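FORM 7B: Structural annotation worksheet

SECTION A. Query
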Amino acid sequence: MPTPKRAETKSRMKLSLTLLLMALVTMVFLLTTTILLIGSYQSKKKSLIETTLNLNYANAERMSKTVDSLFRSMRSSLLFSADQIASMEASRPEDIDAYLDLMRHSSNYFNSIILVNENGSVLNNSPKTLGMVGKRIKSPQVLEALRLKNSYLSSPYTSSTTGRMLFFMSEPLYNKDKHYLGQLAGTVYLRDYNILNMIFGNNNIDESGSYYYIVSAEGHVLFHPDVRQLNKDISSNEVVQRLKRGESGKMQALNTKGVSMLAGYSAVPANDWGVAVVSPVHVIQEQLLAHLRKILAYTVIPFVILLLSVFVLAHRLAKPFVVLADLVNRIGKENVELPELKPHWNREVDLLTKAVVMAWTDIQKQTDQLTQDAMTDLLTGLTNRRALDISINQWIAARVPFSVIVLDVDKFKFVNDTYGHLAGDEVLKSVAEILTASIRPGDICARYGGEEFVLLLPRTKPDHAYTVAERIRKTLEKSEVPLPIKVTSSQGIAHYPTHGRTREELLGHADEALYSAKHTGRNRTVIAGE
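SECTION B. Predicted structure
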């Protein structure tokens, strides 16, 4: 009797073929899925970070230009008023007071304006409630402006009398005999109502956690959504250090609370301030997790179906199944193409073979289709707008000079309205074929949207780009399209870096040239600035 017991024990310890094959298929599936998830995660992460950095940098640049333009306008207004008041040297104080009131109310540039003589005594002030007339200014900033006898812009500082943050800019007054009369100074309170506070005072953190802040040349916070940060010295922050050096760019860095942020920053030439637009990295992580959950949702059902198929057919799949498992295992670990799997004499093995081929083919098709859709215009087969923008940004980053040709089919709305959108689509395809046949290897041709196409010609000067554009225009004009009309085009040309140093500037100038071609008769080519 003992012998049968031992045999029974050994029998119970053996794994069934069904469980063994199911475990093997599960392992292969999980390995393949893990590789796909890791690859997708890294690719998506890089794309999201780069997109966020580029967006923040673009916003910082835009805000920096706004501040720069605003300060230049304030300086111009103050300079004009200084000349006017210098010519009113013999006027009554009441007339000068009235002029200062008009100046203050007409622009909202300054919260207060004072006229100081060369000795530092206040001659006039607006508003009158300041009550400074006749008093001698002791502020080190004002005394420095008087000493320099030139245009002056103070750093933001906290007033010793009011406790409010402010800065002022001033212009010297000289009479017709070039005698120094004093300074005309405009004061801006950073927390009071003025044009600067109107633009940047309503600073909030958006739903994604992104926000912007502005710092002075010394690294003190001037505008920030957290009022507790105002006037705080954050010059130790790496982004602020770069702004203090007058640099602009984008980077990942820690904020003062130790939170990792994606920052785009830009220096303001007019006053040495700096603008930074930042987004927390954890928002990117949340988006990545949502992306992974979506991929997993798509893979669970095929996995369950495959596992059930293995469970049902495992007892009839021995050697053939091992071959298939080995193949799937190699596909998961190696970059190999799926070989041709011939039909098997065993029906169950044949079904499993087809299932494996179908699953892998679907994954490959989905990957190829996603890549193709992301970079290609479906109608014309040309590069799409997204791929074009990526190419422009890459060339600009590498400082490769190139020309941009923006082409717009003339009166395309008439074609659609008269012959229908299908005929319009055929016209766009014909235009795409002509453009493709007209460019060199290395040139890029893209459909930018609607009836608008864009060509990128690397290392091509505007005059040569004009020759290419004219050749395309004449070819298109003579071409035969499936309509009883002639198809013509208007084209605008811009060159990097001659006409712009950013993608937005370059395409903007090319569009302006295109609109000029449209407005001057169509069916012509115009180079930006000409």
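SECTION C. Observations
Residues 76 and 171 are 10 Å apart (CA to CA). Residues 17-86 form the longest helix (70 residues).

SECTION D. Sign-off
Analyst initials: ____
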